[in-house]
């Protein structure tokens, strides 16, 4: 039956329509695993001689040039010969992945693939990974290498739109060359450490003679581009989205070329995974305000997410400076997310006051796990030894009651507590007692436009298995959920608000008499 259907389809449809069908199938399969994609397209290619040339090109859509399973380079050398003989298949390569290992330095694979790279003229996506943080810093100047050749070729091809670099620690890292790639839209630096060794005049000449069209930049993990000045980010005047572990030094603002005097004007989404303690935030904002000439620094920003990590509160960033840093320059802000162990120190009413008339979505996650270390501890069975502790949960919710956000439509609140805070079932009851004082916390008086709300408690607690009932963990956890469910149920009394809540209690066995 399948053969009859294929023959009928082949005879009844023109070549162009068949190509569109197979192209559509390939696009739909790209979201599946690589193995599923390859197996399906192989079956299509082998179904008939008509389908073979249409489906075979899709089999070369993504090419892996890594040497993990090809230590001698034989497989890659054969691939190079094949694609050189089939230039239409070489043009079908749109995605290259390469994981560099030490073995590649001991083979002649660089010269073997150099000719092939010239034929790969349609690469749109490139991913390069160093294995186990292999570094070429010791080789200065850096020697010719496959990863540099691949990167250089793709940057100059005028087709590359997406670039991801992982675990690269390199000398003469071509940062400005990457950001100035005319076709590049999105770039990700994951655990990369590099430097921009360039004199002021050289930087001015380069910035003045190049355009920077990147729209999305991600700095993943704390080591990412640790020494890169913020000025490089300001060159990307088309930047729409930035996500990463903080921003970095603002040195060099005074040499910014004239055409970049309105930085970040198009930025729509800003996600600071943590507010880096290494940055002088006050100087940064002074520089930005001077560059913007009194206008809003982020006029197009609609989504802001900030992680307040435990190392944020240094002389470089103070809680009282946060409103000026983030909320006096965002006239278009619609969505704000804040999270982390230091969020309870942020004066939310003061911060959100300037944006209350247009902020429509608010997501807050208070993580009290680190906050309560050494100052908020319950002890098992000995109340006399219990330390005096500030009630941060109560203080935080009391502060929240002072919020007035006229345009807010969607609200999400999460309270996270670790085992250092919640030792046993009594901890859950005490927390529920505290939170029961805030019935009706979420209401139309505070948020007249509110439509949906969600509240969640995430709690890890120690569970001490009894000798006679070692398997009673699940009932123990379920028992702890009951009072917490009751208090969350009462957070919203207005039936016009679509409200949901969730209690996530999980346990960790512990037998110590005194628990921290």
TrEMBL record:
SUPFAM superfamilies linked: RNI-like
Source species, domain of life: Eukaryota
Name of the featured protein: F-box domain-containing protein
Organism encoding this protein: Panaeolus cyanescens
């Amino acid at each position: 039956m399948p053969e009859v259907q294929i023959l009928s389809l082949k005879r009844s449809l023109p070549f162009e329509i068949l190509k569109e069908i197979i192209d559509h199938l390939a696009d739909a399969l790209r979201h599946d695993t690589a193995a599923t994609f390859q197996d399906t397209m192989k079956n299509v290619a082998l179904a008939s001689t008509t389908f073979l040339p249409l489906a075979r090109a899709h089999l070369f859509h993504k090419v892996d040039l890594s040497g993990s399973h090809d230590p001698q380079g034989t497989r890659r050398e054969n691939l190079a010969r094949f694609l050189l003989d089939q230039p239409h298949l070489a043009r079908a390569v749109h995605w290259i992945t390469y994981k560099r290992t030490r073995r590649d330095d001991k083979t002649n694979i660089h010269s073997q693939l150099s000719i092939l790279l010239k034929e790969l003229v349609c690469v749109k996506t490139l991913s390069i990974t160093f294995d186990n943080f292999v570094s070429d810093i010791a080789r200065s100047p850096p020697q010719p290498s496959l990863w540099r050749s691949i990167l250089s070729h793709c940057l100059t091809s005028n087709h590359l739109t997406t670039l991801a670099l992982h675990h690269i620690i390199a000398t003469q890292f071509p940062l400005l060359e990457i950001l100035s790639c005319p076709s590049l839209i999105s770039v990700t630096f994951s655990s990369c450490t590099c430097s921009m060794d360039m004199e002021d005049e050289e930087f001015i000449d380069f910035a003045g003679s190049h355009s920077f069209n990147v729209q999305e930049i991600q700095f993943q993990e704390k080591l990412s581009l640790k020494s890169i000045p913020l000025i490089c980010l300001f060159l990307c005047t088309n930047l729409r989205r930035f996500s990463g572990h903080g921003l970095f030094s603002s040195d060099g603002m005074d040499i910014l070329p004239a055409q970049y005097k309105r930085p970040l004007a198009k930025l729509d989404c800003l996600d600071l995974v943590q507010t880096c303690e290494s940055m002088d935030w006050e100087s940064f904002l002074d520089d930005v305000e001077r560059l913007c000439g009194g206008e809003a620094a982020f006029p197009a920003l609609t989504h802001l997410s900030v992680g307040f990590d435990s190392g944020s509160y240094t002389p470089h960033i103070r809680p009282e400076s946060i409103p000026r840093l983030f909320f006096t320059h965002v006239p278009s802000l619609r969505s704000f997310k804040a999270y982390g162990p230091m969020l309870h120190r942020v004066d939310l009413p003061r911060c959100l006051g300037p944006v209350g008339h247009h902020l429509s979505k608010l997501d807050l996650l208070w993580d009290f796990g680190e906050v309560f270390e050494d100052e908020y501890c319950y002890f098992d069975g000995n109340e006399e030894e219990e330390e005096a502790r500030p009630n941060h949960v109560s203080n935080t919710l009391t502060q929240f009651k002072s919020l007035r956000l006229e345009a807010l439509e969607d609200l999400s609140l999460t309270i996270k507590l670790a085992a250092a805070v919640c030792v046993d079932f009594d901890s859950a009851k005490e927390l529920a007692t505290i939170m029961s004082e805030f019935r009706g916390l979420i209401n139309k008086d505070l948020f007249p436009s509110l439509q949906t709300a969600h509240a969640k408690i995430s709690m890890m607690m120690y569970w001490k298995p009894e000798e006679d009932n070692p398997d009673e963990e699940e009932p123990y956890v379920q028992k702890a959920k009951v009072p917490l469910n009751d208090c969350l149920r009462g957070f919203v009394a207005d039936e016009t608000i679509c409200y949901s809540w969730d209690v996530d209690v999980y346990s960790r066995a512990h037998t110590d008499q005194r628990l921290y």
